[in-house]
Amino acid sequence: MNERLFGAVEDRTDELVALTADLIRFPTVNPPGEAYRPCAEFLGARLKKLGFETEFIRAEGAPGDSDRYPRVNVVARFDGRSPGPCVHFNSHIDVVEAGDGWTVDPFAGVVKDGRVYGRGACDMKGGLAASVIAAEAFMATYPDFPGAIEISGTADEESGGFGGVAHLARLGYFSKPKVDHVIIPEPLNKDRICLGHRGVWWAEIETKGEIAHGSMPFLGDNAVRHMGAVLQAFEEDLFPALDRKMTRMPVVPEGARRSTMNINSIHGGQTEDFRPGLPSPNVPDWCRLTIDRRFLLEEDIATVKGEVTGILERLKRERKKFDYEIRDLMEVLPLMTERDAPVVKAVAKGIMEVFDREPDYVISPGTYDQKHVARLGHLYDCIAYGPGILDLAHRPDEWVGIADMVESAKVMAIGLNVLLRGTTG
Questions:
Q1: Cα–Cα distance measured from residue 425 to residue 414, given in angstroms and rounded to the nearest whole number
Q2: 3-class DSSP state for residue 348?
Q3: Helix (H) or strand (E) holding 89
Q4: Which one from 136, 156, 157, 186 is the annotated catalytic residue?
Q5: Catalytic position from the list 94, 123, 180, 186
Q6: May I ask which residue range the UniProt record assigns to the signal sequence (predicted)?
């Protein structure tokens, strides 16, 4: 065991807890993108004190970016005493809304019973804080290390990452030779390495109709009824077919080893602008459905889309006046980093050192910012590893364990030692 390095992490436990609580106190709720700038500036100031050179990059023109809600990212870099590879820790600073059901203030950073509570504690401000402490402990223990360490706090992961990692990747921040290895401290449990994620296709389907008086619906064409036919066909044909598809990818939880599709939303006809009055008597001439299709490494994106469009085309042939449009909102291919990749082996050594056992290798059911590192940065030596229990994310009374953060920081510090100095000792 690397007692010096582990001791350096343990000595910073109070700092780790305080940093996590401080980050939680920035209500970086997305949407709309609250408090991004002050949170990024706080993190940048903390890293600057450690000797990092910091940059603040706004993703102007990205979805949601405005002067009121600027998509501000911070990237910090510390160059070692001699040339070598660069290890980048990337964490998103945005969180989802708090919602109801909390027994503590979701943005107070409450510390009790060995846990830090708050929205984003698990997903993923605890992981961000652990990566900072891991880097600090490593730098203090081995001040003559070669290579470079980067730490970033980025925007909008919860809404696709387009104002965060995607924007930075387009600018070259996640490509060689600038960066060689990327660790994303998402909450996938402290003894597991996440190699990647399933694919995703978001799309919007719109059925068409013709407006008419609601007392004479036979004079119009009801778009909501057409969408009902779409949903019925999905229930009878598509969902059973998806449930039969299984993957070799080690996706967790078990249910996500199948193909899935979620109906995100459905809207049709008159808006709710009439409330608290009464609606006008109209036949709806439009209806829109948003789908969230998650697919497997064994599936081709063209086939995934064809399963949906095939149903729509069949309805167009069989159903009188049926017409539709379909619009792609986002598509990301499945990713799975190989187990013999350098960053995987380095973090696996850290888990062996800390927990005295081999890690579990898993795949995330949903995507995260690794997708942009791969598809835009063309950098594939990337994993997710961090403290926290994924099942707690986005829930009331979200928390991260202090002991889990300390142990994960030790794993990350060993990973740095392996990737930059070539040793665990």
A1: 8
A2: helix
A3: strand 82-92
A4: 157
A5: 94
A6: none
DSSP structure class, residue 319? S
Lowest mean pLDDT among 138-142, 272-276, 357-361: 272-276
pTM score, whole prediction: 0.90
Distance CA 76, CA 32 (A): 25
Question: What is the DSSP secondary structure assignment for residue 419, as one 8-state letter?
Answer: I
pLDDT above 90 coverage of the chain, percent = 95
Q: How far apart are CA 160 and CA 183, in angstroms?
A: 18
* Residue-range domains of the chain with CATH: 3-197+334-421 (3.40.630.10), 199-332 (3.30.70.360)
CB burial of residue 272 (10 Å; 0-12, 13-18, 19+): exposed
How much is the CA Rg of the chain, to the nearest whole Å?
A: 24
* 156-to-64, 95, 160 alpha-carbon distances in Å: 9, 8, 6
Inter-axis angle of helices 13-24 and 36-49, nearest 10: 160
Q: State pLDDT tens for residues 96-133.
A: 999 999 999 999 999 999 999 999 999 999 999 999 99
Q: Is 157 a catalytic residue?
A: yes
Q: Is 94 a catalytic residue?
A: yes
Buried b (16+ CB within 10 A) or exposed e, 187-220: bbbbbbbbbbbbbbbbbebbbebebbeeeeeeeb
